[in-house]
UniProtKB/TrEMBL annotation:
InterPro entries documented for this protein: ABC_Gly_betaine_transp_sub-bd (IPR007210)
Signal peptide: 1-21
Chain ranges of the ABC-type glycine betaine transport system substrate-binding domain: 41-183, 203-303
Keyword Magnesium (UniProt): no
Name under which the protein is recorded: Glycine betaine ABC transporter substrate-binding protein
Species per Swiss-Prot/TrEMBL record: Piscibacillus salipiscarius
Keyword Transport applies: yes
Keywords from the named record: Cell membrane, Membrane, Signal, Transport
Entry's localization field: Cell membrane
């Protein structure tokens, strides 16, 4: 009997040791940055795949790398929006890890519905924000009907993403898809035009960034303004030049200002030289994005480069 109890005690002791070993293994998985033990930071070579240098989200992500201690040694790889999306598509097709800069509105969220934003505990990327319309000072007196139409222009995230995704899916230009959208959404367009008098070739120049989101808004706005007789030119430039052009009065307006977070630095430099007409789109968002098959939920789950 004594031998029996001694045997039970020995077995119990071994089970406790095994259990402790399992706990250590679980904690090691957490240290690697994911619940399943995968070191995603190492898997992506401590690199965030970004877009064009100087873009608002590029500037913000550079700040995030500085502010998050666990991103020490990380690299933001800048190139182009098209290159970022190509890398994302290739990774998803092979179910490989990838970390990219992301924003709504963008058609990739329609094509890849399982994308997710990583939580941002430090609030570097801010909450959901707006895309605002900015006009040069004096536009209301100089071109009152253009000012009124610009002030009344507003639509939804889904509207913009619909145009962007259809353009990607069909191969048609943003301008072609924007015309179809205007034809199919007369109630919204007519609200923009309400009370705006017809003009005879009044020239209006809009500054925009060369990204599909801003191409979509500029295209529908151009089509709507031309219905009232305006002669509209859309000039695509980088984001810093957008604010400089409106602030200096070289162009009349822009519908591409992401505020109050993404383009805050650019806006601060010209805020006394422009008039903010308020949001033309609410609920925009930026941040770090991963496919949902990656078992991480927060920027703080990432690990410093070794």
């Amino acid at each position: 009997m004594r031998l029996f109890y001694k045997g039970l005690i020995a077995i119990s002791f071994l089970l406790i040791i095994a259990a402790c070993g399992d706990t250590d293994s679980s904690e090691e998985g957490t240290d690697n940055g994911s619940n399943d033990g995968t070191n995603y930071s190492e898997a992506v070579d401590y690199t965030i795949t970004g877009i064009e240098p100087g873009a608002g989200i590029t500037v913000t992500t550079e700040k995030a790398i500085e502010e998050y201690e666990n991103l020490s040694g990380w690299t933001l790889e800048t190139s182009s929006t098209a290159a970022m999306v190509t890398a994302l598509e290739e990774a998803i097709s092979n179910e490989e890890p990838i970390i990219v800069t992301g924003w709504n509105p963008h058609w990739k969220f329609a094509k890849f519905p399982d994308l997710k934003y990583l939580d941002d505990p430090k609030g570097i990327y801010g909450e959901a924000e707006n895309i605002n319309t900015l006009a040069k000072n004096g536009l209301q007196d100089e071109k009152p009907n253009a000012y009124k139409l610009l002030d009344q222009f507003e639509w939804d995230v889904e509207d913009m993403e619909e145009i962007m995704y259809e353009s990607q899916d069909t191969g048609d230009s943003i301008d072609e898809v924007a015309q179809r959208w205007v034809d199919d959404n007369r109630d919204k367009v007519d609200a923009w035009l309400e009370g705006v008098e017809d003009v005879d070739g009044v020239e209006v120049e809009l500054a925009s960034t060369p990204w599909d989101s801003e191409r979509a808004s500029s295209s529908v706005l151009k089509i709507a303004m031309e219905e009232k007789g305006f002669n509209v030119t859309v000039t695509p430039v980088d984001v810093a030049a957008v604010f400089q052009a409106v602030g200096s009065g070289d162009v009349d307006a822009t519908a591409a200002a992401w505020l109050p977070f993404t383009h805050a630095d650019f806006y601060e430099k010209v805020k006394d030289s422009v008039e903010d007409l308020g949001p033309n789109l609410e609920g925009a968002k930026i941040g770090i994005v991963v496919p949902s098959y990656m078992d991480i939920d927060s920027i703080e789950d990432l690990k410093p480069a070794e």
